[in-house]
Fold each of these.
Amino acid sequence: MAEMDPQHTKWVMVIDLDRCNGCGACVTACAMENNVAFTGEEENAYGRGMHWLRIVRYWVGEWPNVQVRFMPMLCQQCSNAPCEPVCPVFATMHSEAQELNIQVYNRCIGTRYCANNCPYIARTFNWFDYEWPEPLNFHLNPDVTVRRRGIMEKCTFCIQRIRAAEEEARMEGRPVRDGEVQPACAQACPTEAIVFGNWQDPNSKVRELAESQRGFRFLEELGTEPKVIYLSSQKHEF
Amino acid sequence: MQATSSQVRKAVITVVVLSVLGVLLVAAVGLYRSQQTPPQPLPFNHQVHVQKVGLSCLYCHSNANKGQSAGMPTTQRCIACHQQIEPTTEGERILRQYAENEESIPWVPVAIMPDFVYFSHQVHVNANISCEQCHGEVGQSTIAPSLTKKQNMGWCLACHQNQPQERVARLTSCEACHK
Amino acid sequence: MQETTLPAELHERVEELREEHLLLDPRPREEMNRMVLEAMEDVNREYIIVMTILGLVTAVTLFGAWGYLMSKGLGLAGIRRPIYWGLFIVSFVFWIGISHAGTFVSAILRVFKAEFRRPFTRAAELMTTFALAGAGLYPLIHLGRTWRFYWMIPYPNQRWLWPNFRSPLVWDFLAINTYLLGSTMYLFLPLIPDLAMARDKSKGWRKVLYTILSFGWRGTEEEWRHLQKAIQIFAWAIIPVMFSVHTIVSWDFAVAMKLGWHSTIFGPYFIVGAILSGISAVGFILYMIRISVKNMRYFIRPEHFDALGKLLLIISMGWAYFFFNEFLLEWYGGEHTVQEILRYYTTGDMAPVWWTMVICNILIPWLVLWNKNWRRKPWVMALMGIIVNIGMYAERYVIVVGALSRNRIPFDWGWYKPSLVEISIALGTFTLFFFLYGLASRLIPLIPVWEVEEGHHAHGLKRIGKGVVKTVAELE
Amino acid sequence: MSQEQRLTRRDVLKLAGLGGAVAAVLSGCGPTAKYVRRQPYYDMPEYARPGASVYFATTCRECPAGCGLVVRTVEGRAIKIEGNPNHPVNKGATCARGQAALETLYNPDRAKGPTRQGKPITWDEAITALADLLQNTPPESMAFLLGLAPDHLAELVYEITQALGAPPPLRVGALAFMEARNTLAGAAERVFGTKALPTFDIADADLVLSFGANFMETWLSPVYYGKAYGAMRRGRPGRRGILVHFEPRMSMTAANADLWLPIKPGTEGLVAQALGYLVAEAMGREPGEGLFQVDPAQIAQQAEVSLEKLEKVARYIANEAEKVVAIPGGVALGQSNGFAIAQAVLSLNALFQELGKETGVFFTPPVNGEAPLAPATLADIQDLIGRMQAGKVKVLFVHGVNPVYEFPPSWGFAEALKKVGTVVSFASFVDETAAQAHLHLPDHTFLESWGYQRVQVGADRETLSAFQPVVVPVFDTKATADVLLAAVQQVGGALAEAVPYKNEVEFIQKKVAALRERTDGIYAHPHPQVFWNLFLQHGGWWTEQSQKELARGSVLNVQVGEADFDQGDLYLVVFPHPILAEGASANNPWLQETPDPTTTVMWNTWVEVHPETAARLGLQNDDVVEIASPYGAIQAVVYVYPGIRPDTLAVPMGQGHTALGRWARGRGANPLALLGPEANGASDPAFARVRVRVRRLGTRRQLARKENVVGVYGDGRYEPVEAKAESGMKE
C-alpha cells in the first residue's frame, strides 16, 4: 500500500524539553491508545513495567540548588536502528515507506536481543499474559494487536493512526496534511511539547522546530540517526 | 550373524511402519476437523439469496466497499424483506423470533482475519476484486460455508506479488498488513 | 619388545617407567578388550540407583521447569528490563565452552601427536557431544515463544520469509548445529573398531545395537586405511569449526552496541576461556571415570593428569592475558558508561562474582599447578576442574548480566537476581550431562583400545649403554 | 483466566476446532477475546459502520475543571479519550487522569446495580424508597452532600431542596479544600473586588511567581495551565517566560521552575511582601508610599531563603519583565494564615500594576451571569457534622464525593455518619461512604451520563461544558437526576409542581434554553431541538470571542504575621497526588501505573524525606515508617528525596482506600488522617499547620519506581545527558 504513496514520508517527532513539564499525560495516553498492559506493583517494583513511553527524570545540582530535568524517552525510530540487524526472524524491521521501525508481533519469537541492543532501553517485553478483566477489555483498541506472552513490543509512532490517515488521504487523492497524524502522546500533551509530522514536507511544523538552535538527537554519537529530535531546555539562572 | 541381522531388519521395519501410520492418522484427523462448518444460529442458504433472488453480496455485507470488515447483516436488513414472506422454513421462523425479540443474530463468521492482521475490504472491493476470488463460490452453497480456500500469508502474497507495482502494493513491508 | 635379562638397577628403572607410562605398560589386546567390556557391562546396583536419581532430577529440574516456564511465560525467570538475558545465556555460553574440550584434546592433540592423549580422547569427545546437547537447549529455553524456534531455520515456507542472516543468532544457530554434527561424526569414527570389537564379544540386545552401529566393520587393512584417513581429515576439519563456534558465540555480544560487550578481543578471549573450562572439565571427568568405572585405573594414570595440569596452567595464563588486555583497554578508554560498568564489576554489586572469577581462573591455578606432585594427584586435578569451571561460569555471568545492568541511561540501570526456575533449569543441564555420560559409559567403550594399542606398538624401551630410554616408532 | 476459557470465546474455535485452538495458542498475538467480540447489530444506526469510529463530544468529570473531551467509539464501545480541540479550557489536550477515565467507565469493580443494605433491589423499589424518604422526612433533617461536579445536578438538587424547604446542598471534596477555593475567592474579592476563582494568565507572562501553587499537577485547571505554561516557555519567538516557585518541597511545578526557593512553611506571605518591597525599591520607589511595610533582610532570614536571590528576582522584574504574575495556591493557602497569604500574594499583582507592569489575573465570566454553587466552607461542613452527631440529620444524600475517605477523620464524619437514620449514596463505585450507606443507588459514570459543567477557571469566555452519553450504560445504573425526578414525581403534589421536569434531559434543555437567544455563541439556533443537537455536537456552549479582561486590583497591606503550627518535630506537606489527585479514581489501574513525575513511584504512598533528615533519623529508601500527628498516624514508605526541606516531610494523597475496588483497596495510606480541624482564616482547612513525628518500624517495602535508585543517586558522577547536550549547545 505504502508504496503507492506518491510522496515518500519520513515521520519525525520533536520534543521540546523546555515545554515538557513531566505531567505524564503522554504516558497514560500511549497506554490507552496502544493496549499497553498494566502489570501491577510487584512487577513494576522489579522493573517490568510495560510503558512504551517513560519520562526520564534527573536530579541536577545539590541542595538547595537542586533542579530536576524531565526527558520523555521512547523508541527513537532510528533510521539506522541497532535493533533491526540482530533480530533473527525480521520481527523488527525497517519500513521503507514510512521510515519507521516496525515491530511485527506475530513474527516475534522473543530472543530479546533487540532490547539488549537498544541504547535507549525503549523496548518492553511481555513477561506474562496480562489480563484486562471484563469489562475493562471493552476499551481495547481494535486497530492495535493485543500482545501475548513472550513478545517484544515498543512505541510504533502510533502506526495505526499513520496508516489510517494515509489511507484516507489516498482515497481523497491528496498527500497527508501536516498535523493530520498525531500520535496519542502528542495529542494528549497539555504543553504542546510533543510535535509530530512529516520531515519530507518542507513547511511542516516539525521541520521548522527541528531547525532550532536547541535541537539535538539523543545519543546521536552512536550513529543511530534517531527520528526523535529533542529541544533542550535552557533554564534561566538567577 | 544371520540371526542378528534379521532381528535388526525386523526392528527397523516395525519402527518405520508405526511412525508412518501415526503421521497419517494425525493428518486425517486434522483434515476432517478443518472441513467442519460451524454451527450457525439459523440454517442460512446463500444459494437461494444469490442465485434465486439474485442479491448481490453487498446487499447484506454492505460494509465491504466502505470499510475494513464486510459486516454481517443486521436483523432489520433481513426482516425488511422477510416480513413480506410467509415463514415456511425453519430458518425463517427462527429469524422471526430474533426480529420479535429485537435481538441481533449471532452469526458465526467463517472467514476470520487473525487480529494481528490488518486487512481492508474497501481497498480490495474498490479494486474490482470479486468476492469469489477470495471467498470461493459461496453463492453456490446451500449451507453455511466452511472456508474453502486456505487464506494464509503466502496466499495473499501469491496474488499481490503478481500485481503491477504502481497500482497495487507488493506487500514487501510487514507493516502493510501486520499491526 | 622388552629384553628378558636386565641388570637389577636397570630393572627397577624399567619398572618405574612402566608404572609411570601407560604406553610403556602394554597388555595383550585381548586383555584390554576384556577390561573395557567389563567396564561397560558392569551395570551394578549403585549404577542403577545413581542413574535413576539423575534421570528423575533431570526430568523435574530441567524439563519440568522448562514446561512450567513455557506455560506461564518468561516472567518466571529473573530477567527484567534492562537485563533481558540472564542465567540461560550464561549457561549457554558455559556449556559451549565445555564442549571445546573434546575437540581440543582429541583433534588438536592428535594433530600435534601428543601421545598422552590416547586413552582419554573418547572421554573428551563424549563431553563435547553432551555439552553441546546441553548448550543447544538454551537458545530454545530462553525464547519467549519456544514453539516458534523453527523460524530461525532457513527453509522454504508459505510466508515467503527467510531468517535474517545479518543476525548473530542465526549464525549461532547454524554454527552450533554444524559443530554438533561434526563433533558427533568425529566421536563416532574412532568408535567403529571398538564397537565392532564389542559386537564380536557381546550378545543379546547389545549385539543388535553394536551390529547396527559398527557398520559391519571387519578390520581389514583397507578399512583401517580409510578410517585413519577419515579421522585425519575430520581432525583437521573440526578445528576451524571449533574456533568458529565460540567466536560466533562471542560475536553475539561483541557485535552489539552494548558497552561492556562491544569489544574486538572477545573472539579469542572466549575461545581461550572455553578451552580453559573444557580442559579443566576433562580433568574432573577423568577423575570420575577413574574412580567410578571398573578397570580404569590401568588406562588413566597420574601422567595424564600431570599433562592436563601443565596444559591447564598454560591456558590459564593465556586467559589471564586476554582478560587483562580487555580490562585494561576498556578502563584506559575512559568512556563514561564503561567506567561505570568496570566500577560495578570491581566494587559494585557484581564484585563478589567478579573476584570469584579472578581468584578461580588465575590465582588458584597459578598457585597449585606449578607443583608437579599436586598435578599428579587425580583428586587435585578434579578439584581444579570444579574451581576453574566455577570461575568460568562467573566470568560469563559478569559479562552477560553485569554489562546489561549498566547502560547509557542511568535512569534505567537495573539489578538482577536469578529466579528458582532459572536456577533449577541451569542445574538441570548439569544432571542431564552426567546422566547422558553415565549412559554412554555403559553403552560404548570409554577407552579407544585400538588407539592405546597403537600407542603400545609405537612405544618401547631401548637400552643405550647403561640407561633405558623411551622410543617412539613412527607408525602414524 | 485460563487459556481454555479465553479460547472458547473465540469464534475461530467454533470454526476450526483444534486447528483454531492451536493457532490461538501459537500465534503470539492477542486472542481476539481480549477485544470485545464483534456482534452484528439488531438495527445499525446509520452513522455506525463495522470497524468505523464514531466520535462524541463530552466533558471530563474526573476533576471539576471541566475540560472538553472527544471520545472515540467503535461499535458502541468507548475506545479512546481525546481532548476537544475547540474547547476554551483544554484546547484539545488532556491530563493523565482524563486519559484513564475509560477505566472508570469500564471498571470491573463498579457498582452493578441498586442495593439496600447491600442486597440488590430493583430500580422501582429504589425509587419508591427514595420517594418515601423525600415524603416522610422533615425537610430540615435532610442533608445533601454533593461533589464539585456536575453542576447541573447541584442546581437540580438545589431546586428540590428549595421546594422541600430543606437546607441547600453542600458541595464538598478533598480537592476543593486542598485548592482552598473559598480562600482564593475571598482574597480575590478583597483585592480585585470579584468573589470568584481567579485565573492567572501566564501564557504571555515574562515572569511567574508561584507561591506554592501546584498548578501543573491538579490545581483548579491543570490542563489550562499546562497549555499556558507551554506557551509561556516557547510560545513566543525570542521571549521565554520564567517561573520562580516558592514551596517547601519540590512539587512537579517547582521541578519545572527556573528558580525554586524552598522557603519555610508559613512565610509565603511575608516573602511575597518582601519581594514586592524589593521590586518597588528597584524601581526607585521610596519606602512608605503604598508599599508593604516590611524588612526584606529580616524576612529572608526568617524564611530561610537567600536575600541575594530575592533581590536578583526583584531586579529582573524591575528591569527585564514586562508582564509579571504572582500566584498563591497549594500548601501556601493551607497555612493557618492562608487567607492573609492569599491576599498578600494577590496584592503583589496589584502592586505590579501600580508599578506599571502588566499582570495577568482574570475571571471566567459565568454563563448568563449564573455562577455555580460555591463549595462549602469548613464551618458549613463542621456544622453539618455537628447536626449529624446530634442525630438531627435523618437522611443524608451523598453524590460525587466520598466524605468518609475525603474528610480528615479528625472531623469526626465517620462517627457522625453512624448516627444518621438513612444514608443514601449515589456513588458509581462501592466507595468507603457507599459501603456504609443504607441505600446505594449508583449513578452512571460521566461517559454514560447527561449534564453540564460551568467552567470557573481557565476559560477566557463564558463556557458551559456539556456531558452526553458516549456509550450505553455498562451496568444497571441510573442517572441520579432521573432517579430524584422520578421520586419527586412519585411524591407528586407541591413538590412535583415546584420541580416540573420529566427527566434529566428535559431539565438540562430548560436550563440551556436561555442560551438560544444569545447570538455571540460559537453557534446559534432558535429551534430547541437543533440547538440541543448543536449543543451536544460541540460539547457545550461558549462565546465566539474571548471575553478576557485583566482585573485591576488594589494593594492590601495585610498583616500576614506568623503561621502557627501544631506540636511535632517536622513540618508536613500533604499534597494531591500529581496523577491520582485526591484518589477518587485510584481504582483505575493505568492511573496507578502512571509514574509520579518527580519520584516515578507507582501504586503506593511514599513519604519524601530529605537525605540529611533521613541520615539523622537512620532512614533509608523503602523503609516503612509511622508518621504520627496529634490527630492520627499513618504508615508510609520512605523515599529519600533531594528536593525537600530538611525540616519537612511530604506525603501524597490518593491512596489508602479501604474500599473502591481491587486495585485501590488496602494500598498505601491516606495522609488526611494526619490533618486537624482548624481553619485557615477563610474557613478552608489549614492542612499545612500540622507537624509530625516519624518512627522507623523496622520493616521494608520496595516501592515500585520507574527510575533506578543507584543510577539516579549513584555517586553523582552522572550529569544528565540532557544537560550534556545543553553544554554542547552553549559552545
Amino acid sequence: MFEFSIFILLPLVTAGFCYFIKDLRPQYGASIIVALLHLGLSLLVFLGIHHAQLPTFFSVDSSSKLFLPILSNVYFWVVLVSYSYLRRPITPKAEEGKKYYFALVNFYLAANSAAMLSSHFGMYWVASEATTLSVAPLIYFYRSEESLEAMWKYLFLVSVGIAFAFIGILLLTLSAKGTVLEGQQLFFRDFIRNATKLNPIWLKASFIFIFVGLSTKIGIAPMHSGDIDATSNAPSPIAALMSGSLRLTAFLGVMRIFQIIHPTSSYEFARTLIIIGAILSLFVAFVFMFKVNNYKRMLAYSSVEHLGLISLGLGVGGLAFVGAMYHAVYNSIAKVVLFMMAGNIHGHYKSREVEKVRSALNILPKTGWLFLIAYLAISGIPPFGIFFSEIKIFEGILFSDRPYLLGLVMFFMLFIFINMGKIIFTMLYQKSELEPQTINEEKFELNHLVVIILLVMVTIIAVSSPEILYRNIMNIAKDYGMSL
Amino acid sequence: MKELSDTGNVLLIAAFAIQLLSIVFLSFKNERKALFTSNITMLVGLTLGLISTLSSTLFSSAEITSVSIFSGLIRLDGLSLYFLFVIQLVAIPTTIYSISYLRHYVEQKRSVKSFITFYIILLISTQFIVIANQAILFLVSWEVMSISAYFAIVYEKESEEVQTGSFYYFAASHVLIFILYIIFFLFHHETGSWFFSDYHLSFSSGLMVPVIFILSIIGFGIKAGFMPFHFWLPQAHPIAPTVLSAFLSGVLLKTGIYGILRIYQFIKPMPEWCGWFVLVISVISAILGVWYALAQHDIKRLLAYHSVENIGIIGIGIGIGFIGSANNLPAVEVLGFGGALLHTLNHAIFKSLLFIGSGVVYQNLGTRNIELMGGLVHPAKYIAILFLIGSVAISGIPPFNGFISEFIIYMGFFKTANELKNYYPILMLMFVVGLAFVGGLAVACFTKVNSIIFLGSERSEVKHFHTSVYDYISLGILALLCISIGFYPQPFVGVVNKVIANGFTTGASSALVDIDWLYFTMIFSSIALGVFVLYLIKIKLEKKYGRRNSAAWGCGYENLTPRMQYTASSFADELNTIPKAILDYHKKVEVSENAFPLQSKFKSHSKDFVDSKIVLPAFNVLRALVAKIEFLSQTDIRYYIGFILIIIAIYSMIAFLWT
Amino acid sequence: MENVLSILFCLSLFYVSVTSRVKAYVTVLRVQGIILSVLLMIPFIYKFSIFGIILPATLLLVKVYLIPRYINKVILDLDIKRRIEPTIQQMVFLPIVIATMVIIFLASSILSKSTELDVIPFASGFSAIVIGIYIIMSRKKLIVHVCGFLIMENGIFLFGTAVASELPMMIELGTLLDIFVVVFLMGIALNKISSTFEGFEVTHLGRLKD
Amino acid sequence: MDLEILQGIISIIIILGVAPLFAGMVNKQKAVLTGRVGAPILQPYYELQRLIKKETINASGSSFISRISPLINLVTLIIAAAMLPVGFWKPLISFDGDIILFAYILGLVRFFQILAAMDIGSSFEGMGAAREATFALFAEPIFFFTIGSISFISGFTSLYDIYHSIQLTNISYEVFIIICSISVFMLAVTECSRMPVDDPNTHLELTMIHEVMILDNSGIDLFLYQYSSYVKLFIYAILEVSFFYPFSKQSYLIGIIIFITGAIALTFLLGVVETITSRYRMKNIPQYLLFATAIGILNLLIYTFTK
C-alpha cells in the first residue's frame, strides 16, 4: 500500500492540493517532492532493491519495471524546469491558466503511473483515458487559437481512439468465451497464461481495435495527426512529457495485448500489423520532414518516427525488440532535451515558424549548441545512447525474417535525418535580415543544466550499459517469448 | 599476437592523453593564447604519437608483429601502424599551419575555439579509426570523425555556400554510416563476434561475402571519393577552412582506403571480378576527376577534384592487388598494394602541401578564384617554389614522390600482363594508357594552376603578401617529404613492403624491393646536379655577354596589361570542350562585331555531372513525389476519424484474408 | 427483452441519421441513456441488490441527466443554430447507414456461429459505433461531433453488455466518469472555440497544417 | 671502366654531338626537295654558336621559372637520351621500368616548358602553352600503344630490352613492328613540332605551338631551347631507327650500317613529309593524334588475335 500511495495516491493528493493553493511556489515545492519520491521509489523497484506490493488491479511486472523509471525520470526533470518556465512572460490571457499547471501535471503523474502499473485491462483503460484528460487542458496552456484547435483535435481524436481500444478490450473478453477465462476478470496475467486457448478470431479483432485505438495516442500513422498537433502546440515541458512518457504509456498497452497474442497462432498477423503501422509511421515522418515548417511539429514528427521504430522493434522481435526497449529509454531522454531547447528558442523568438528563427547559434549560443547536440543524439550519432539502440534494432531487422525492411527503414531515416538537419541548420546558421543590434549574452539557466545532465545521462547509460538495465530488458524479452 | 611493450604502450596512451589535453587549454579567455597553447599541445601529442609509431616495428628491420591492447579493443598491425603514421605525419604540418591560419580569424574578432575543439576531436577520432579492432569502436570513431569534421567544415557558417557545401558532406556521411552498419552486421552475423581479429570469411561461402564486398566499395567509396560517389567532395572541401581542407583531402579520404583494405583482409582471397570492378571505377574516377579539376576556377574545388583523381590512382593500385590475390601472384599483389599504399602517403603529403599553399594565397587575396590571381611569384617567391614542388609531385612527374608510387603501379600492370599472358596484356595496356592519360591531364591542370596563380603579372593588386613562419615550416616539412621520397624511396618502399607482408599477401615476394631504386636516386640527383652546374655556366655566360629585362613581345603593341594574359578558362578550354557533355561544360563567348571591337568576354563553367544530373534531380523528384502525398496533410478532424475507420476496415480485411 | 431494447436503440440510430435538428440529437442521447439503464437493470428484476443498483443509477444520472443537460446548456449558451448542415444529404446518408447496418448484422450472425453471442445487441452496438463515426464525419458542427461521439460511446456500452458485462463496477464507474469529463472538457473547449473563432464548425479548425 | 658504361657515355656524347647535324640534314633535305639550295648541313651549329654569344633578354614580368626552365629542359633530355640504345649499344641507364621513367621524364620537360611560356604573361605564349598541353596529352597514348605494346607483349620493361626482344621470325609480328614504327614516326612528328602538327618555320605567332612558347627567349636561354629541340628530335629518331635492332643480331657491322642509313633515310622521310603536307588546322590536330592512337590499338588487337 505504501508504494501505491507514493506512486498514485500522493500525486493525486498533491494535485488536489495544488488545485486549491493559488501560489505557484508551494505548488512547485510539493510537486518536486512528489516527483523526487516517485523517482526514488521507481528506481528502487527497478534496481530490484524494493519489491512493490500493490493492491488489486495493480502490479509490477518486467515491462512496468522498465517503463516506470522512464516516466518518473522524464517527469522529474520536466517538473524541475517547469517553475522557471512558468515564470516566463506570456499573454495576459494565459496567465490565469498557470495556476492549474501543477495540479494537472500531478494528476498526469498519478494517471500515468496507474496506467503503467495496472494489471487489468479495464484499469489500464480508465487510467490512460485519464492521462488524456490531464494533458488536454495543458495543451491549451497558451490560450491561443492554435492551441485551442490542437486541444480539441487531440481530445476528440484520442477519445475516439481510446473508445476503440475499449471495444478491443470487450472483444478480448469475447475471445475468452468458452475457456477457463470466461467470466473471469481481465487480468493480464491470466490472459497471458491461457493465451493459446483464446478464440483466435476475436483475439485478432481485439488486437486490431486496441492497436488502432491506442495508435492515436502513440502516434502511429495514420492516426498520428492529433498527437502531432498537440505536441507541437503544447508548452515545451508538456510536449516533453507527452513525447517522453505519454506515448510510451499507450505503447505499453499495445505491448500487453501483443504479449497475450504472442504464443497464439495469431502472432504472425499481429506482428504484420505492427510492422505495417511502424513502417507507415516512418513513412509519414519521412514525408512530412520534407515540408514541415514549424520546428516543434518537426520534433513531433521525430517522435512519430521513433515510436515507429520502437514499434518496429516490437513487431520484428528478437534483437530488434531488445534494441527497441533500449530505444524507449534513450528516446525519452533525448526528446525531453529537444523539447526543452525548442522551448527556449520559442521563448526568445516567440514563434514556432522555422522562417522566423534565424542565426540562433549567435543569438542563443548555449541553447543553440545544446539543441544541435540533442539533434545529433536523437539521430543516432555516437556516443549518445540512440546510436547503440538503433544499431541493435537495425541488426535485429537485418537478421529477422524480413530483412528487406531494413532498406526501407534506412531510406526513410536517412531522409528524415537529412531534412531535419536542413531545418535545424537553417535555424541555427542562417543570418536574418534584421540582425538585432545588441546581442545579450544568453544566461545560463536551470534548463541548460538539466539538459546537459540528461545528455550526459543518455551517454553514460549507453556507454557503461549497466548490467541491471540489460537484465531487466532481457527479462522483458523473456516474458515476451522473444528468442535471442 | 602479442601485447605491446610497456614503453610503446605508455607512449601511445600518453600521446592520446596529451592530444586530448589540448582541448583543456581552450579554456583560456585570450583567444590567441588559447589557440597557440592548444595547438602546441596537440603538436606535442602528435609528435609523441609519431615517435611511438616510428619506434614500432614499422621502421625497424624486424618483421611487423600485431599488437593488441585494452583487451583487444585496439590492435596495431601493419596496416594500422602505416595509416597511423600517415595521419600523424600529415597532421603535424596542418596543425602548425593552423596557428597562422586561425590567427586571421582571431584578428577579425571571431572565436576559433569551437573550430579547434572539433579539429582536435577530428584528429583523435581519425587515429582511433585505424587502430580500432572492434566494430562498435570503429563505428563510433567513424561517426565522431564524420560529425566533428562536419562541425569544423561549417565553421564559417553564415555563408550560404558553406551551408550548402557542408550539408552535402553531412548527408553523404550519413548514407555511408548506414552502409557501414550493414557491413559490420553481416560480419557479426557470420562470425558471431564484433572483433576484427575474428573476421575471416571466404567468398566461397555464398552470397554474403560478395554483398559485403560491394557494400564496402560503395560505403568506403563514398568516403574516399570514388566516382560516382564523389559528389559531396567538391562541394564540401572548398568551403572548409583551409587547414581542414588540407586534412580532409590529405588524410580523411584515406580512411575510406583504409576501410577497403581492411575489409579485403577479412575476406581475402578475392575472385578476380572484384579486381576488375575496382579497377574500372578507379580509372573512371582518375580520368574524370582530373578532367573536372581542369574545368574549375576555384582553386580549392580544383584540388578537391584532384583528390578524386588520386583516390582513383590509389584504387587502381588496389585493383591490381586484388587481381594479384585472385590469381595467387604475390609479386602482383605486392606491386599493386604497394603502389596504393605509397600513393596514399604521397597524396597525403602533396595534397596537404597544395591546400596549405592555396590557403596562404587565399588569406592574402581573399578569393579562391584563380582568374583573379596572377604574378604571385614576385611577392611570394618561396611559397611559389613550395607550391611548384607540390604541383610537380601531384602530376606524378619525376623527381618527386608522386612519380614513385605511380611507377610502382605501372610496374604492377606490366607484372600482371607478364604473369597472366593471354588477353591480359591488351587489357592492362588499356589501363596503362588510362593512367598515362591521367598524368597528361594532371600536367595540363597543374601547369594551369601554377602559371595562373603565380606566374605572369598580377591580375589584382597585392600590396603586401603576408606570410608567417608557421606557413613556411609546415610547407617546408611537406616539401621536404616530397623531395625525400622522390629522391630516396628505399626506406618508404621498405616500410610499405613490410606492411604488405603483414597480412596482405599469401606468398612472399620481393618484387617491390627488387626494383632498382638506386637508379632513381642517381638519375634524380644527376638531374639536380646537372641543372645546378648548367646554371653556374649560364650565370657565367650571362655575365660575359650581358642580361637585361625588357617588355615582352606584343606584336608591336607596347602596353601589355595583366588583363591581356591568357586566362585559366582559355588555357583549359580546348581540353574541356572534348568531354563537354560529361563535364557539363558551358562557355559563353561574347565577341563584339563592331568594326572597332570594344570588349569581348569569355566565360566558362562546369557543373558536376553526378551532382547536377543524378543527385539533385533524384532529390527533387523525391521531393516532388512527396509533395504529391497530400491526403496525409489534412487539417480536418473528420479525416482523422475517417482514417481510424478505414484502417480498421483494412486491418479487418487482412485478418479476414489471413491464412 | 434485450433484443427489443436493442431494436429500439437501432431505431434511435435511424432517427439520428435523418434528423436535421441539433436538439434531436440530445433527445436521442437521452433515449439511448434510458435504454441502456433499463438494459442494465434487467438482471435486478430477478435478483435485487442495493450494491448492484449503483451502476445503473449512475448511468442514468450521467447519460440521461447530466450530459444531455450540459449539452443543452452549451447549445443555449452559444446560441448554436438549430439546423445542422450535413455535408452529405440525408437521402444519401440514410441508405449508407442502412447498408452498413445490414453488413454488420450479417457479419455478426456469421461470427456468432463460431462463438456464442447475442447477435442483436452485439450488432446494434457495433452499428451505433460506426454510425457515430459516420455522424462525426458527415457533419460540420462541432457540437454534433460531441453527440456523435456520445452515440458511439453508447454503442460501445451496448456492445459491452452483449459481449460480457463482467467488468468490475469500479472500472465501469471509472469509464463513466472519464466519458463525463471528456464531454465536460469538450464543452469547455466549445465555449472557447465559439469565443475565439466565432463559429462552431469544423471548417474553422484549419490552422494546424504543414 | 666497364665497357658498357663507356659505351653509354659515348652514346650520350654522340647524341649531343650529332643532334644538330641531324636537324641540319632534315632542313637540307627539305630545301632540296622544294627546289632550293638551302642552308648548309652544319647550319644548326652556326646558329647555336651565334646564340651563345648574344645578350640574354628576359621578359620584364618573368620570374626564375623562365630562367631555369631551359636548363631543366636540356638536362632532362640528356637523361632521357641516356636511356636509348644508340647504335644498339646498351645505354647508360637501363633498368626494369625505365620505359615509364622515359615517358615521364619527357613530361617533366613539358611541364617546365609550359610554365616558362606562361611565365612571360603574354597571350602568345599562353596560347602556345595551352596547345602544347592539349596535344601532348593526346600524344602520350601513342607512345604506350607502340613501344608500350611491344613491352607488354615481350614482357620487358626496359627500352633496351624491348628493342632487343624484336625478332624477325614471325610474319605477323613483323607487320606489327612495322606498323608500330609508323606510329612512332607520327609521334615523333608531334613531339618534335614538325609538320603537319606544327610548322617550325612559320612567321605568324598565332599558328605556332612550340616556337611561340620560346618567342620571348634569347641568348643563352634560346640556345638551350634550340639545342634541346635538336636533342629531342634526335631522341625520337633513335626511337624510330632502333626498330632495326634484329639486323644487328647476326652481324653488328650490318646492323650499324643499317642504323646509320636508317637515320639518314629518316631525315629524308621527314623532309618529304614536310614538303608534301601542309600544317593541319589546330582543331584537327587532336584527330590526327587520335588517328595515330587508333592505329596503335588496331595493330595491337590484330596482333593479339592472329597470333
